[in-house]
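Figure caption, in words: inputs first, then the predicted bound structure.
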Amino acid sequence: MYLSRFLSIHALWVTVSSVMQPYPLVWGHYDVCKTQIYTEEGKVWDYMACQPESTDMTKYLKVKLDPPDITCGDPPESFCAMGNPYMCNNECDASTPELAHPPELMFDFEGRHPSTFWQSATWKEYPKPLQVNITLSWSKTIELTDNIVITFESGRPDQMILEKSLDYGRTWQPYQYYATDCLDAFHMDPKSVKDLSQHSVLEIICTEEYSTGYSTNSKIIHFEIKDRFAFFAGPRLRNMASLYGQLDTTKKLRDFFTVTDLRIRLLRPAVGEIFVDELHLARYFYAISDIKVRGRCKCNLHATVCVYDNSKLTCECEHNTTGPDCGKCKKNYQGRPWSPGSYLPIPKGTANTCIPSISSIGTPPKFNRIWPNISSLEVSNPKQANVCDNELLHCQNGGTCHNNVRCLCPAAYTGILCEKLRCEEAGSCGSDSGQGAPPRGSPALLLLTMLLGTASPLVF
Ligand SMILES: *[C@@H]1O[C@H](CO)[C@@H](O)[C@H](O)[C@H]1NC(C)=O
Ligand SMILES: *[C@@H]1O[C@H](CO)[C@@H](O)[C@H](O)[C@H]1NC(C)=O
Ligand SMILES: *[C@@H]1O[C@H](CO)[C@@H](O)[C@H](O)[C@H]1NC(C)=O
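Bound structure (2-acetamido-2-deoxy-beta-D-glucopyranose present):
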């Protein structure tokens, strides 16, 4: 008994390490959904949490302007050169390609000279406000992974709001306010993301950092995703394990970086001085040369591939899940309630695969996944989340803790801490040890599995 257990640990150790060689233990990749491993039972699939790569999401969006006829050039009009109100013979003409500035030019290849840009009509109806809504829609939930960067060709607006929607444009929430004077424009105290902390990271702020007053030359506006990530992952985002742990445990944090649509509300163009120069209203307009949005399809850690087909993004779901976001179990795989994959334990996560429906067994208990505070688990070594060997968590049933992050289990066992019998997960333990099987392991493990939840729920 002992001998065979030792042998199987040994066999698993050797083969797992050889299988894992092609996938170096780098945090935050989650780039495979499954690999084949060799156990004494032969080749078996080992399932992992997985997600698509982060990419340029502007290739997949639809853009809508409000008012729809706000783009300059129909009818043709002239506008003043940037920064020179006395050179007002530039022309915008929608019917002449060289003089037209349609919205697509916000998303084309940059680095061209002169740069291409979208431009609005001028503020000729002053004092009626010149306002434009630019709505970017993906018709798919996406997770932002890098700063949103908007590059203006005109001066940066005096007042602007960036908004987001999580329900395909039905409801909107502000993401960030931008103004030359936050108090005056929005009755908010000016703040910068650097003033925030882990605890206030979700606060919606008004910033004056990108206003015309600060640096007249810069034309860029950021929505700072990376600075917010850094509150968890540290400077230069070296400790992604900690960020992923927090994303796993805090739905609000995950949702904060998730959108289906973004809306840029341009509320007042750059004026530069205190008064609007009413004699030269052709000085005032909005022009944007580039918008950058990087992110990935949200597939609930059940897919690495997101396909763009028929102008629609869809996750290619694994783990027997289905739906645009892999948000439910496939038909005949509803043996337990659907659950998103989990980033933990680092680095491979937990797949939480859907399992075949077994009509004879009643509905198993719902997932109860409350991870302990991850930042408190990894204090010993900031580079590695100490997930499987610390004062709280130990590998069970003869499993060994590999690199502090993953239990390597004897062939018969599985689960984050090797706390489950493999046959139990597969539903093949035999009729007497299936549904009514008593929970295995020490009272401490039981407590822990209640605390953590497991890939397959224990039946109590
Ligand atoms: C922009 O959207 C807001 C919110 O729906 C709306 O109140 C406003 O009228 C819109 N502005 C324009 C110029 O369409
Ligand atoms: C999903 O179901 C197929 C059979 O339809 C099976 O071969 C495969 O192993 C299952 N995958 C997972 C992750 O359970
Ligand atoms: C998580 O742990 C850190 C470090 O021990 C602590 O400062 C923080 O307050 C904890 N957060 C929660 C939500 O318990």
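Residues 358-452 form one domain.
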